[in-house]
Amino acid sequence: MSINKVAVLGCGLMGAGIAQVCAQAGREVTVIEVSDEFLSKGMSGIERQLGKMVERGKLDAGSQAETMKRLHGSTRLEDAAEVDLVIEAIIENIEEKNKTYSRLDRVCHPETIFASNTSSLSITQMMTATGQERQRRFIGMHFFNPVPVMKLVEIVRTILTDAEVFNTATEFAREIGKVPVQTSDRTGFIVNRLLVPYMLDSIRALEEGVASIVDIDNAMKLGCGHPMGPFTLGDFVGLDTTYYIANIMFDEFKEKRFAPPPLLKRMVLAGLYGRKSGRGFYDYSDPQNPKPMNLL
Ligand SMILES: NC(=O)c1ccc[n+]([C@@H]2O[C@H](COP(=O)([O-])OP(=O)(O)OC[C@H]3O[C@@H](n4cnc5c(N)ncnc54)[C@H](O)[C@@H]3O)[C@@H](O)[C@H]2O)c1
Questions:
Q1: Which of 58, 195, 221, 236 could form a disulfide bond with 53, CB atoms 3.0-4.6 angstroms apart?
Q2: How is the chain split into domains, by residue range?
Q3: Ligand 1 atom closest to Cα of 77?
Q4: How confident is the model over 170-192, as a mean pLDDT?
């Protein structure tokens, strides 16, 4: 099966990037949002991103115009009826996702593949909002932020996913210029399964007085060749998001390595979310020169 027409649900941070890369790869893309306001915000964001690529000489103006022509905005789920693949990137809320999947199942062609970009929710739980036939055509496609830059996509199968659907989605990720890895529906998939305990351990090391924020960051950057240390990374991802995912993983596995340390909880309660709120492990008042916070 080849994927020519795609619908992307949600045109926020992730949906906009996913719609952009699919359209750049020559696919017709229907972008669905909850309101005209969110839709036009998302679509103009994509146009701006493409404009920046033209300025940097990474895209010519003709390709920018053609890409925009392949993007069709809508606020009606019914406009996803005839697509080959739906990639859902709406808010991370199981009730909202399941409500959307149950409606979508009635609207879409029986062959349409459903893919969720969720970071932490169960693909299997979302799948149960659809009928038996669709359940075989239900997968996860987990992209990384920023989508146009990050190469990885985790392709996630449930115990009911058809092998052909799993392979079609994997091949599609390759066709849009990504590097797919295949995994199964276990909370956190591959990356968060390994990354979240590492980030939580770094916070525990800080709490236990092993070293300072800057020294732990430098140690992991220079000692392991990581592009950034764990605290810089946490501030970039968002500490509220990290806390949320850690809680979901701890609930699922009941293992200490996924338990959010008290310092992380206190920081989130205090509104220290990282870069997006101006303060996290570092203070970004001067964004070019972040200063470590005094947290202990
Ligand atoms: N932010 C990340 O780094 C990241 C990385 C990988 C995966 N994800 C996952 O991607 C999904 C989206 O995250 P985001 O960061 O783009 O969120 P976001 O808040 O930036 O965007 C979500 C968008 O979905 C829209 N929306 C909400 N309900 C909708 C509905 N019923 N139909 C259509 N649109 C709807 C909202 O208006 C909003 O524009 C989540 O499941 C998240 O876990 C996020």
A1: 58
A2: 5-184, 192-282
A3: 32
A4: 98
CA of 92 to the centre of ligand 1 (A): 6
Question: If you ran DSSP here, which 8-state letter would residue 88 be given?
Answer: E
Structure pTM?
A: 0.95
| Total Cβ atoms within 10 A of residue 204 | 17
The single residue listed with the structure tokens 């870069």 is 275
The pLDDT score that the predictor gives to residue 1 is 83
Among the residues of 145-190, which ranges form H helices? 163-175
Tokens representing residue 53 in the block: 């690529």
Is a pLDDT exceeding 90 seen at residue 214?
yes
Round to whole Å and give the CA distance between 255 and 250.
6
Question: What is the Rg, in whole angstroms, of the alpha carbon atoms belonging to the chain?
Answer: 20
Contact 127, 109 (CB under 8 A): no
Q: Would you state the CATH architecture of domain 5-184? A: 3-Layer(aba) Sandwich (3.40)
**Which residue's CA is the nearest one to ligand 1's atom 39?**
12
Which among 196, 146, 155, 145 is positioned nearest to 175, based on CA atoms? Answer: 155
Q: How far is CA 8 from the centre of its chain?
A: 13
Does 192-282 carry CATH code 1.10.10.350? no
